[in-house]
Amino acid sequence: MAQLKIRDLYNLLSQAPRRRDLEQDGIRLVYDGTAVNLSTADDPDTVIARASICGFVTGSWDVTAHRASLDTVMAWMRMLDGEDLIDVAPFWASAPVVLAFATGGQVGVWPVIACPTAPADRRPAAVSEGRAER
After folding, report:
1. Which of 3, 46, 92, 101 is a Cys-bridge partner for 118, taking CB atoms 3.0 to 4.6 Å apart?
2. Which of 62, 67, 65, 75 is nearest to 113 (CA)?
3. What is the C-alpha separation between 76 and 57, in angstroms, rounded?
């Protein structure tokens, strides 16, 4: 889980390219224990924006989420106090994996395309492939 100020996460997400500027519909977020980095699925090695975390440190994670759902996430975040902290973590209790945002008892989710840090049987691609093999 990454813990950031809502304002910092909002600023990070607002730097994501528009859909027509992407070759694929994927926004990649990587948490390394100190910051959350934003890139795209088409160019995962180019960091577009970075937000430092606040609070406690947990294990790192890596997700690629749908750009099409980003506007909904950001609209929800605009209703929150930008100075409050928000917890951001992939949630893989069941497939599909989602990226969960939690603050002050409220939770928002963002559908995930890929989560290489999820357990192998919970990754979106692994679940789809498993169904195809049956």
Report:
1. 92
2. 65
3. 25
What pLDDT is recorded for position 65? 92
Query: pLDDT by residue (tens digit) across 50-89?
Result: 999 997 778 899 999 999 889 999 999 999 999 999 999 9
Which residues partner with 31 through β-bridges? 36, 61
Q: Treating both helix axes as pointing N-terminal to C-terminal, what angle do 70-78 and 6-13 enclose, rounded to 10 degrees?
A: 150
The residue written with tokens 């963002």 in the block is 110
Helix (H, G, I), strand (E, B) or coil at 15: coil
For the sheet containing 35-40, what is the strand order?
Answer: 2-5, 85-91, 98-103, 106-114, 61-66, 26-31, 35-40, 49-52
Q: How many helices (H) and strands (E) does the chain have?
A: 3, 8
| Beta bridge partner(s), residue 101 | 88, 108
Q: Is the peptide bond before 96 cis (omega within 30 degrees of 0)?
A: yes
Strand partners, 5: 85
Query: 106: burial class by Cβ within 10 Å (0-12, 13-18, 19+)?
Result: exposed
